[in-house]
Amino acid sequence: MSAAIRRFLASVSMPPAMAAVGLGALAVLVAVPVSCERITGRPIDVTWLFTVNLVIVYALQVAPLFVYAAFASRPLRRFPACAPRTRFVCFVPAHNEERVIQVSVGSLLAQRYPRELFEVWVVSDGSTDRTEDIAASLGARVVSTTTRGVGKARALACAFQRTLRGPDDDRYVCVVDADNRVDADFLAEMNNAICAGGFRCLQAFQDVVNGPANWITKGLWITTLASSRFYNVGRSEGIGNALIFGTGWCCQAGLLHRYWPRIQTQTEDIELNGLLLLHEGIGVPCVPGARIYDEKPANLWVAIRQRHRWMTGHMRTAGVLFWPCLLAGLRRRDVRLVELALYYLLPFVMNLGNLQVLLSTGLQARLLAVHGPAASPTVQACVLGLTLLYLFGYQVVGFALETRLWGRAPLYSVMAAISGFITWTPALVWACFTVSRTDWMFHTPHTGSPEPSAPAVTRVRGAFARGWGRGLAPAPLLRVTAAAVALLALLPVASLGSEVPTGGLGAAPVTAAPLPEAPFGHVTRAKEGPTLVRASEAILAGHAAQAVTLLEPFVAADSHNMEAEGLLAAALYVSDRRVQAEWQAAVLRRQDPSGRQTAFVVARDLLAAFANRLPVADRLVDLLTPTGGTDGYAWLGQLFAERGRYDDASTILACGAAALDDTAGPPSASLLSALGYTAWKAGLPATAVTAYWQAIRLRPRSWELYVGLGRAYYAWGQYEAAGAAWTTAGRLRRGDHRAAP
After folding, report:
1. β-strand pairing of 172-175 with 88-94
2. Mean pLDDT in the chain?
3. 603 or 300, which is more confident?
4. Which of 311, 382, 490, 569 qualifies as a cystine partner to 584, CB 3.0-4.6 A?
């Protein structure tokens, strides 16, 4: 027996009982339609089942991939370099990982980032081998769970409880699996993203450490890279909410202290996605510059067990978060929550995809039949074309853009389709019977890999070039073409091989970031032209539909004019075309993730004019500012005040104060204080006095408010009142709280 055959058999090895069950189920599925066809003498009509199944699979599984790929079609965006100032705590959960622990810990300790700004902890989940000793010898700190093998989520919960400082901890926690390695600039890139965008939870770009190992890992390599390059980056660019992959993610410690105790499933990654978006409105950006390399299973049985655990946890997450996310998304009109709720249904949709494979195979064998529109040659051609793109085009392009291995990509895509069908199908069916399990279920064994796939790319590319020089390349390409044709003949409609992470339209809320000092580039008055002026006038005159008609061709011709796009979003929203407005806002945030530039250019022209129409102004703030609501008004007012536009700032802040839902909360005091300051600067002392007194009722011991009140009284000519306010401020500053009224 040749070495190649022995390696192939080793990669396919699985328990005989499981293999027998799988082959038996396949035999039954083939025998039933064959028997029915022989008994009745005609194929079974499956028109209704085929049509409904086709719509669900392509709408919820296939279409999102292409939509996000369109968002990710541009070159990857790198965050600008920032001085290191974020403190990180890196956790490496490990259970008997003595073979690989030096890889993850070593790559973390070798970061090109100030050593005093990060710590490395190994979370030993009941390890009985030398994992803890090796980690300690490398220089990492070790924390051990109290019981053996409690699982990754609970092990991290134990570590967080012991090491995090509470809800006010402003450090960032990074989680890296024990078999992974990270680039030397991993933490530096995360720091750049945090400083530039103010993000509170982030996900790294995932690659594979052992991609060229065998045909299984090659298939997983291409699906992982295509998923990272198109799916997750596309989610981040398009809707501001990428998926957490389970490794290579980074989150603010205070958020984890608050929400990690709520984790209930084996897929803690996508559950954390839902909790942060549902309760905090926080989306997760993808950071392409931060690279992490994951070790993929080189054995089919190990891959099946791993995916079985993922799908069980994913189904349980759907049971926990589907309805809360869906209902909250509809109530808030937040498309991100609705999209995430539908994503939680993916395991069930993938099972329908497997059913679609069987139905399509039965149609090819003439054991089944469909009638009506589903049998139309046009429909069948469209389905076949989408399937081609889904199975091969999507993965080939995503993989080749990252590796430049255009010649090998088609072969790897065929490997991905075969291994994906063999591993995902039993895992999905098996998970339906174990969805109630809450234990760990299966620990993926790791063997270690000497180097990541990036250097291996060079070796494969060199070997391919040498083969072409010897005239050997055409034969593999012919084999690839033949295999692809055969596969498509059997599977015209399928859900194969896409390594969609098992873990919205809208944009991620962003915390405060430095405001730009220079003018806003190409969004200036000099370049806006008469079209934008007419559109602004139409919106202000109440003719939003006319403004939409003017702006749509303008935006189509100049896709980088953010003022035009912002005006279009506002016009759509004012004219009650809210879904389109949300989509347009998402497009804006691809160019302006923080929302600050867009908010300014639109609010400059529109928001002040809507001050006497509070519902409309409130909707514009919610749409066009990073946080919306009270925070949105406060931020916009501050922005105008810093540019000397105190009249406009006062108008906006007064608009926000009048729209307050809770006049007793801390944001209300901040908003009223800002209103008092800007009104004083704008020469409106009476308004300033009123705002400061309302803020003082909420914060009676704030000496700064009394200082501002004194300035307002002095500007108003009330000198005795000003002196009294300043006297009270001095007493409060010295700690005499009895001075407060």
Report:
1. parallel
2. 76
3. 300
4. 569
Q: Under CATH, domain 629-741 is a member of which superfamily?
A: Tetratricopeptide repeat domain (1.25.40.10)
> Which of 24-28, 91-95, 123-127, 393-397 has the weakest average pLDDT?
24-28
- Count the neighbouring beta carbons within 10 Å of the beta carbon of residue 372: 11
List the beta bridge partners of residue 292.
182, 206
Residues constituting the chain: 741
Tokens encoding 260: 């990690």
What gap in Å lies between CA 624 and CA 683, rounded to an integer? 28
* H-helix or E-strand spanning residue 719: helix 719-733
Phi/psi zone of residue 23: left (φ > 0), alpha (ψ -120 to 50 degrees), beta?
alpha
The answer to whether the CB of 127 falls within 8 A of the CB of 96 is: yes
Which residues is 316 bridged to in the sheet? Answer: none
**What pLDDT score was predicted for residue 195?**
95
Could you give the 3-state DSSP secondary structure of residue 474? helix
Q: Which is nearest to 94 in space by CA: 65, 121, 66?
A: 121
Which residue's structure tokens are 């908010």? Answer: 599
pLDDT in tens, 106-132: 999 999 999 999 999 999 998 889 999
The two tokens of residue 687 are: 């308004």
Q: 247: exposed, middle or buried (C-beta count within 10 Å: 0-12, 13-18, 19+)? A: buried
Instruction: Compare 392 and 476 and report the one with higher pLDDT.
Output: 392
- Quick one: tokens of 145? 């769970």
Q: Are 65 and 498 in contact (CB under 8 A)?
A: yes
Report the DSSP pairing between strands 286-294 and 201-208.
parallel
* Alpha-carbon distances, residue 284 vs 87, 168, 237, 336, 504 (angstroms): 19, 20, 10, 11, 10
Same fold, 513-626 and 629-741: yes
Predicted pLDDT of residue 148: 72
Q: Taking Cα atoms as reference points, which of 696, 700, 725 lies closest to residue 713? A: 725
Question: For the chain, what are the domain ranges?
Answer: 46-511, 513-626, 629-741
User: Residues 21-24: contacts with CB within 8 Å, 24+ apart?
Assistant: 22/426
pLDDT at 517: 31
Residue 487 or 198, more confident: 198
Dig out the tokens for 547 from the structure. 């403004």
Q: Confirm if 187 and 88 have CB atoms less than 8 A apart.
A: yes
Higher per-residue confidence, 321 vs 656 = 321
Q: How far is CA 664 from CA 694, 695, 701, in A?
A: 10, 9, 15
Whole-number Cα distances in Å, 258 to 164, 165, 169, 280 = 11, 11, 11, 11
Query: What does each C-alpha distance from 70 to 397, 403, 510 come to in angstroms?
Result: 12, 19, 24
Task: Tell me the per-residue pLDDT of 193-217, one tens digit each, with 9 for 90 and over.
Answer: 999 999 999 999 999 998 888 899 9
Both tokens of 718, joined, read 């009330």
Phi, psi of 614 (to 5 degrees): -60, -45
The C-alpha atoms of residue 485 and residue 489 are separated, in whole angstroms, by 6
Look at 520 and 42; give whichever has higher pLDDT.
Answer: 42
| Tokens of residue 60, six digits | 């919820």
Q: Which helix (H) or strand (E) holds 44?
A: strand 44-45
C-alpha angle 310-313-314 in degrees, rounded to nearest 5: 80
> Which CATH number is correct for 46-511, 3.40.1390.10, 3.40.47.10, 3.90.1150.10, 3.90.550.10?
3.90.550.10
Classified as helix, coil or strand, 252 is: strand
Give how far the C-alpha of residue 220 lies from the chain's centroid of Cα atoms, to the nearest Å: 21
Q: Is the distance from CB of 180 to CB of 291 less than 8 angstroms? A: no
Percent of the chain with pLDDT over 70: 67
CA distance 66 to 386: 10
CATH for the stretch 513-626: 1.25.40
640 residue type, one letter = F
- Report the pLDDT averaged over residues 312-332: 94
pTM value surpassing 0.85: no
